Amino acid sequence: MRPWGSVDKTEVLARLAADDADPVFQTIVQPRGEFKARMISAVVGPGIILQIGETLEEADDYLEIFRRLFSILIIILIIVSVFIGWYLARRAVVDMEAVTLTAEEISNGSYDRRVKVTGQLKEIEKLSTTFNKMLDRIQILLRSMKEINDNIAHDLRSPLARIRGIAEMTLVSEKPVEEYRDMAVSTMEECDSLIDMINTMLDITEAEAGVNGAADEKFDLAALINEACELFRPVADEKRIKLDCHFPATLLFRGVRKKMQRVVTNLLENALKYTPEQGTVGISASVRNGEVVIVFKDNGIGISEKDLPHIFGRFYRCDRSRSQSGVGLGLSLAKAFAESMRGMILVTSSIDKGSTFTLKFAQ
Ligand code: ADP
């Protein structure tokens, strides 16, 4: 046991007097400052104060051991953190460099290059996947733009060549005025069909981009379908096609009347165009489960399974229908207009049996 030396009692006596005989706890420092002690003082009888104390030497020793241990641990932690930080930063830089390198290669024209997505940091892996997806999309767009350009070039070349041919004939040969008049009419017709084609392409692009969209209106769809049937009846009669039209007396529809007119016209015109003489074409409209449904059914030449996924693409024409007039924009326009009115267009078809085009509109 170590001597405590003399303990200052003045503070204890003052607190005991003030606290009405409650014991007083104190932590005192051994006079030579070597260790601390915890002490309790209490009044145990008249003029008798009992003081009991316990040294904190052992607890201080433990504290010292913990302090040293924590200091060492913190130093190790700092070293490990610095290393991990450096490693992660390095990996992020390397992965980002791979993305930058691919972007550079693509800007130099290698559109089929992709960033490798393996063993990267999670965030960079996500960035690389999104980057690759964006590249896939760009490549598809570029391919379809090229296809469209090729098609436009091809479809513009033929009428332009005909116009040039007519102009050349007027220059190289002497003809009666009547023939010159006919040539002028042919030139105008060729120009009109070119203007039509360009306007249709602009309409499709605008509808797909959702710009210049006319406001919705409420109109009678039954009346619109009836008008279309009456307009095309002479065409059907000429081919001795049975044209069946079924729709309710009135069918209120919310959409853009002019767009709907062109959608219905295009689909009905196709059904009649691609159905041989004495065939049957039917058009019906109804409301099913809150949707307006219009069905165009024909028993014409049909569309092969190979062609079906492409028929809504711009300028796409199936080989079997090349003998008919058309430039391959009718279905693209119908799809773009239907979708711009919250609708969709579905098709089922089988070769030589016929086709069914179904329009569905949420109302
Ligand atoms: P087109 O001006 O050639 O009619 P569309 O875009 O309207 O252009 O149609 C694209 C192609 O889809 C047509 O060339 C034709 O091959 C096919 N097609 C469209 N409608 C029908 C139909 N009712 N029956 C058979 N083939 C069709």
Walk me through what this model shows.
The protein has 363 residues and is an alpha+beta fold. The chain is 52% helix and 20% strand. The chain has 7 helices and 10 strands. The protein has helices at 10-18, 57-107, 122-172, 177-209, 221-238, 257-273, 330-340; strands at 24-29, 36-45, 48-55, 217-220, 242-246, 252-255, 280-288, 291-298, 343-350, 354-362. The strands form 3 sheets. Strands 5-7-8-10-9 form a 5-stranded mixed β-sheet, with helices on one face. A 3-stranded antiparallel β-sheet has the order 1-2-3. A two-stranded antiparallel ribbon has the order 4-6. Helix 3 (122-172) packs antiparallel against helix 4 (177-209) and helix 4 runs parallel beside helix 7. The longest helix is centred in the first third of the chain and has 51 residues, at 57-107. The radius of gyration is 45 Å and the shape is elongated. Bound molecules: adenosine-5'-diphosphate. Adenosine-5'-diphosphate is lined by residues 266, 270-271, 274, 298, 300-303, 311, 316-318, 321, 326-332, 355.
